Each structure stands twice: as C-alpha cells, then as structure tokens.
Amino acid sequence: MKNLKLxxxxxxxxxxxxxxxxxxxxxxxxxxxGLLQTTxxxxxxxxxxxMYDSRLIQSLLVTHAHTDHIGRIPKLFHEGFEGKIYSxxxxxxxxxxxxxxxxxxxxxxxxxxxxxxxxGNKNLQKVFDRWETVDYQKSxxxxxxxxxxxxxxxxxxxxxxIEISFNNRKIIFTGDxxxxxxxLLPDTDLITDADYLIMESVYGDQNHESKDQRRxxxxxxxxxxxKANGTLIIPTFSLERSQxxxxxxxxxxENNKIPVMxxxxxxxxxxxxxxxxxxxxxxFNNTAKTLIGSGDDIFDFPGLQTTLNTKESKEIFQVQxxxxxxxxxxxxTGGRILHHEKHYLSDPNNTILLIGYxxxxxxxxxxxxxxxxxxxxxEEILVRAKVFKIRGYSGHKDSDNLLNFVEKTTDQIKKVFxxxxxxxxxxxxxxxxxxxxxVNAFVPKDGEMVELEV
Length: 454
Fold this sequence. Notes:
This protein has 454 residues and is an alpha/beta fold. The protein folds into two domains: 4-206 and 395-452, Metallo-beta-lactamase, Chain A, CATH 3.60.15; 211-393, Rossmann fold, CATH 3.40.50. 30% of the residues lie in helices and 21% in strands. It contains 14 helices and 22 strands. It starts with a strand and ends with a strand.
C-alpha cells in the first residue's frame, strides 16, 4: 500500500472521545483512546465495540492524561490489545491517578458492560505494565517505517503534540494545544514542517482575554465577593486548571491583591494530582522554577484549606462567608461542586465563576447560558447567584492562536483535519484556515476514513 489510512474513530464533530487510527499495510497504531463525555463521565456509546480489532493494534500513543483522551484504554486491553503504550513520564503518572479515579466510578456501574472487569485492578495493572515513557524531542523507532517524536503541547503537565514520520512524510496530531503562555508550563512547540495536521478546535470560533485581563478579572471577582460577604464557588477540572488556579491565587494572596479569607480546595482528585505536579517540577516553565527555587510553595498560601474527606467537605457549609470554594467537576457533571451549587446558587450574594470550557448538555453550560432554574439531585434549584466567566483560564488555544499555529507550517502542509470541537467551532476554524492561509482544511465525519499520500 502506497498510502496510509487515517480513521477518525471518535473525536470528530465532538469535544471528547479522542481516538484516531493510523495504519499501513503491516502496522496499526492508535492516537489516544478517550471517553466520550457529555452530561456524565461516560456516555453509553463508549461500551459499543471499537471500529477496529483491538488485537491487531501494535501501538497506542497518548497525547495527555485527560479522561477524554485516556478513559477507554482499559477497554482496549479488555478487547485484546497487547501492544505498547507511549507517552511522556508525567502523562503516565497522571493517567494512573485519573484511571483509578474513573475506575472507582465506572466499576460499580451496569454489569452488562463488564465495567467491573474492564476497570478492575487486574486489567488496570495490565495497562501500566505495557506503558512506556519517552522524553520530549527524542525520536522513537516503532518499526515498519514509523518513527515518533513527542513535542511540548503546553496544555497540561506532560501534554504532547505527536509527530509521526513515515516515508519522509510528517503527520502531526496536536492533542489539545495549550493557551500559552501558561503560568506553569512551557509554551507550545512550533511545528513548521507538517505534511498532514490533525488538530483540535475547542475554541475554534472564540478568543480569550489576555493573561493580564484574566488575572485582573479574577482579582475583581474575589474582591466583589468579599465585599458582598458571599461565597464564591469555582467549578474546576482536577487536572491542570486546579493547579493553575492555585498558582494564581498564591500570587494574588502573597502580593496583597486580595484579602485573606478561607479558600477551600475541595477535590480529593485534584489534591492527589497536585502532588504529581510537585514531583515533576522539572517540566514547569522557567518562571515557575525560579519561584520554587526562591522557596515559594506555589500551590500553598494563607487561608488555603484542603478537604480530602467527606466530613471535612461538609464542614465547609458551617464556615461563615466570605469564603471561596474550588471543587470539581469543571463542567458540573458530578463531584463535590454539585453539593456546593445546590447549597449556594440560590443566594444573590453568592457568585459562581466559570473558568473552563462548558460542553453542550452539561449543567455548567446551562448555568453559563443563563438558566434561571436547574436540577441538582432531582431537586429544582433557582439560580440567583451572580454568574461570571473568565475564558483566559482555558487550557486551550483560542481561534486566533490556532490559526497562528497552522500558519507556521503553511509552506509544506498538504491538508489540515479539524477535530475535537463542536461542529460550529470546527467549521468556523476550517473556513478561517482556508480564507486566511489558503490551506486545504477539512472537517471529517465521525467514523470517516481518509487516505494520506506518502
């Protein structure tokens, strides 16, 4: 076969479920194997058979440790995968915590899908026994003509753009691209020589505030909440957003930009993940390393209280306002944030601050779109609290920066495939790439297979 086949197994036309198959005549490799997620941690379609025979896949390349990129890896093994997994070292360490957390939730679900076996300890052990780590910028020869290099994506700790070389052609899978410059991470590596680009588009049709604006907005929201003697609740993603938020609050508190008050870090998963961040500080950017070198604990500050167990979490309700509560999940699809939203959203003195992407169909999206009534634990809750959104804390590049990313490789690029976004965002970005850069860009359909000339 002269050409490679690329199949968009899932992750096309949707923000979650990253899973792409690249194959030659005698080698099949996957890029990511994530869960499809809308209103819950996992949609029913996750348990349908894969589009491919898992037993025939030789390698799985993982861009980063978010659940929508790794959550179906145990299912892949359950269906017979015996190949190797490749990722950066932080991604493997973070994935172990993330998958064990997913297992706690899913292993108790409907037995007809054998989720207790798929996410059981024995199968998870298989996953990590076959998982190898690679350094950024190091070329790995997979055999059969395939070579791979992991490059800095700047999205979360350990996140990677994956460069696959075959027959002097370079196929680039971006994974999720970071909103550089990040408070903690190095900037996204430039790609200048891609032949084919498979790229995310979460914010393909929107732009963020500047970094200075986002910090000022955060400071203002906290000060306003303090003056109103209210409770500020911040739904956050446990991985990366929580750690970046702690970093920002550390700066604001230590520079006397905000008043000292109780700030509760109410997410056991995020607390455990933060310890992995401490372990892998060599992957931080130079600014963060310098702060750490000066003796600053960048994830701790006056007023911060971590609440690991349920009893500690419930006791937050007894603490007088003003106070701040940081809890998961980031889209209000589960976790402790639901209890806080149920308790605090009806009071107009309180505030909810949205700092991450809110997918269609999620409770977070309903709140963002201005719903006056929502349902939590089958109880109707009036939304009287103030609702604020700061886009600048997103971990994804915005529309302009996605366009700039493509522009760096226009001299060589043959085709851009835009995925991992809502249809509106994908189509908008494709049109911008065509109009501004004159590049052949395309929105594939879920399940579609294309041939790449190599």
